[in-house]
Amino acid sequence: xxxxxxxxxxxxxxxxxxxxxxxxxxxxxxxxxxxxxxxxxxxxxxxxxxxxxxxxxxxxxxxxxxxxxxxxxxxxxxxxxxxxxxxxxxxxxxxxxxxxxxxxxxxxxxxxxxxxxxxxxxxxxxxxxxxxxxxxxxxxxxxxxxxxxxxxxxxxxxxxxxxxxxxxxxxxxxxxxxxxxxxxxxxxxxxxxxxxxxxxxxxxxxxxxxxxxxxxxxxxxxxxxxxxxxxxxxxxxxxxxxxxxxxxxxxxxxxxxxxxxxxxxxxxxxxxxxxxxxxxxxxxxxxxxxxxxxxxxxxxxxxxxxxxxxxxxxxxxxxxxxxxxxxxxxxxxxxxxxxxxxxxxxxxxxxxxxxxxxxxxxxxxxxxxxxxxxxxxx
Length: 378
Known about the structure:
The protein has four helices and 25 strands. It is mainly β. Helix content is 9%, strand content 37%. The protein is globular and about 70 Å long.
C-alpha cells in the first residue's frame, strides 16, 4: 500500500519550510484550495482566484512543401495552426494547472498540477480517474517520450539582465538561465496578486532544462510570459504566453493538488505505438489532385513500396515526430510504424524530429506512394 504525503497547510520557501519532493510511490492527501491555505482553519480567497493564461510551444518550422500547382497551401496552413502545441494554464496564489492540447505527443487534455510546497507535478491522464506523480526531472521524458523517466537535475546558473523587455503590452524583466542541457532567456511580467503561481510555471520550464526547482528565477507576483530555450545539442524551444486574463473564482477543484475524486496509481502512462495529429481528411487535402511521379529507386532487400500512401517507420531508439510539408502530422514510438494511406500520389517534404526539437534529421524529399524510415544516429 503506498504511503501518503500529508498536504497540511501550504508553506512557501519564504515561510521557512522548504518544499518536499513528490515521490512516485507516495500518494498525496486530497487538497482543497482556499481551505486552510496558510493557517489551520483559515481561509484565503486568493487560492480560489488568480490568472488564466494561454501559451504555445514552438520548436521551429519544418521544411515547407515543394512548389507545385497541386500543393494546397490553405489546407497546409490550416493544419499547421491546428497542430500548434498549446497549454492552458491556471495559476492561483500557490497552485497551478497545465492542460496540454494540439501538437504535443501526450494526448489532448493531459494535465499537470503543482503547488508551491511540493517539488514535482501530479500527472492526470485523460480518460482516467487517477493521478500519477511526475517527479522532479521527468518533464523532458513526459513531453518528449510519454514516459516518466527521471533525469538528474542541478541548480541553474541564473543571471538577471539589465535589458528590459515588453510582452503583451507589459514591461518584462529578463533573466538568463543556464544548465548542462540548455541556455535560456526568461521574460518575466509582474501580475498583481499572482503570488507564487508564476514560480510554478518557472519550475516546469526549469524541469525541461534539467534544472533544480530550487533555482531562483521568478520572484513573488512574477510570471514567465516568454522563454527561449537553446538546447546544448541543437535546436530551440520557445514558450510564449499569448493571452492573460484575471480570474476571480476558478471552478471548484480545478486547482486541487490532487482532487479528492482521483485515485493514486503508480503504473506508467498507457503505451501507444503511434498517433496521427492531423485528421485523415485534412491530410488528404494537402494536395488538390494526385500527380504521377516515378517510383523511388529500390534497394536490395528493401520491401516493395505500398500501393498507396506513405508508410513511416521509426527504427530509432526514441519517440520521433514526423513533419510533413512543414506540419507536425504524427508521432511514432521507437520500433513502430504508421501508415498514411490517405496521402495523394505526389512529392512531399518530410522531416523526423524529437518533439522538444533537440534532435532533428535533415529534410527529405519523399515520393508517395513510398516508405520512409528513421534510424538511430551512429
